[in-house]
Amino acid sequence: MRTRAAVLIGFLVTWVLALGQTCPTVCVIIPEEDRCVVPRPVPDPACETAIIRAFLSYGFHVVDQQQVKFLRMTDPEIIERARNGDPTATRMLHERFAADILVLGEAYAEGTQVPGRLSLQAARSMAEVRVIEATTERILAADREHAGGIDIGSCELAGKRALERAGAELAPRLARVIVQRFSYGCPINIPAIAPPKIGVTPFEAEVHCPSDFLRVLDNAVESEISQRGCRTVQPLASDFVITGTVTDYKEVFTPAIQIPGLEWIWRGVAVWVTVDVQVFDLATAELKAYEVTATVTGVEIFGFRFGASPRDTARAVAKQMASRIGWRCRS
């Protein structure tokens, strides 16, 4: 009887705690700086926005970003003091926004070099944040994220993408810490980590090669990595971007008829292709490079080629690439 009574009392206590505790109100304040050209503050922080968007989707109550923006413009000193651990500033933010949790930090983005891609701009971002329980001023978590982003022709937009990616990576980790603190009465749904997305940008050539080969190479690479279970998307929405340069393309003909002027009637064809592949990891802004070489053989009869067409060659190169990056598709 005593055991049953103890279990019942424990259940009632848990139930009462659940009734008395709801999802916390979270205030996210992460000032940003754009260092692509001249260091300058960003009026609409992309990292902050990404974390707020994720928190709202999880089910948290989040302070209106416009209120935070107004405070950032009118009294940035409070934010700076709270970020540096001033308890008075922390209490002021708690009282002003009625926030249970403060997510404070800073972030910046700067341009990086993209070898051989004049039109493709890349940026790298860094975001540092702390999760603070406003009423106790206790630090629940401290985290940091490096991320990369690319854009066609604009370093500023590449930086925005990098900052947004950093916020998206931080959000679920921070949310899990907050949920642990408010474990009762807060039905938060944090999605599982999705497999990476892969994009392919057009390949270039340092040597002469058939235009049809370059035209179909991008699609061939996408097809091969898709068949291996990878998710292929537009490059600007991807986690990994694959590109490269054709550094060698040779065709060797072996006539079957050794009569001058008649070699073209029937001859064997062998094609050698070498491609320097570059893989951009947009989560870390790191660049990995490797070389693939493919050989394709066929025949030409009266000028018609069988088995060594530009499409066949592109598929052979794509298979080599996909075999090197297949491990990235595993969740």
Provide an overview of this structure.
By secondary structure, the chain is of the alpha/beta class. β6 (120-133) and β7 (138-152) form a beta hairpin. The model is unreliable at 6-20 (pLDDT under 50). The longest helix is centred in the middle third of the chain and has 27 residues, at 155-181. Strands 1, 2, 3, 4, 5, 6 and 7 form a seven-stranded mixed β-sheet that branches. It has two domains: 22-181, TolB, N-terminal domain (Rossmann fold), CATH 3.40.50.10070; 197-329, Rossmann fold (3-Layer(aba) Sandwich). It has helices spanning 2-20, 46-58, 65-74, 76-83, 87-97, 155-181, 211-227, 310-325; strands spanning 25-29, 32-34, 40-41, 61-62, 101-112, 120-133, 138-152, 197-200, 204-205, 231-232, 240-255, 266-281, 286-301, 304-306. Helices cover 37% and strands 34% of the residues.
| Mean pLDDT rating | 84
Secondary-structure-based class equals alpha/beta
Oligomer: single chain
Which term fits the overall shape? elongated
Low-pLDDT parts are 6-20
Level-1 CATH class name of the largest domain: Alpha Beta
Number of continuous helical runs: 8
- Give the CATH superfamily of the largest domain: TolB, N-terminal domain
Q: Any idea what the radius of gyration is?
A: 28 Å
Helices and strands, in order, run as HEEEHEHHHEEEHEEHEEEEEH
* Helicity, as a percent range: 25-40%
Number of domains: 2
CATH second-level architecture of the largest domain: 3-Layer(aba) Sandwich
Q: How can the largest sheet be summarized?
A: 7 strands, mixed
CATH topology of the largest domain: Rossmann fold
DSSP E strands, number:
14
Q: Could you tell me how far the N terminus lies from the C terminus, measured between alpha carbons in angstroms? A: 49 Å
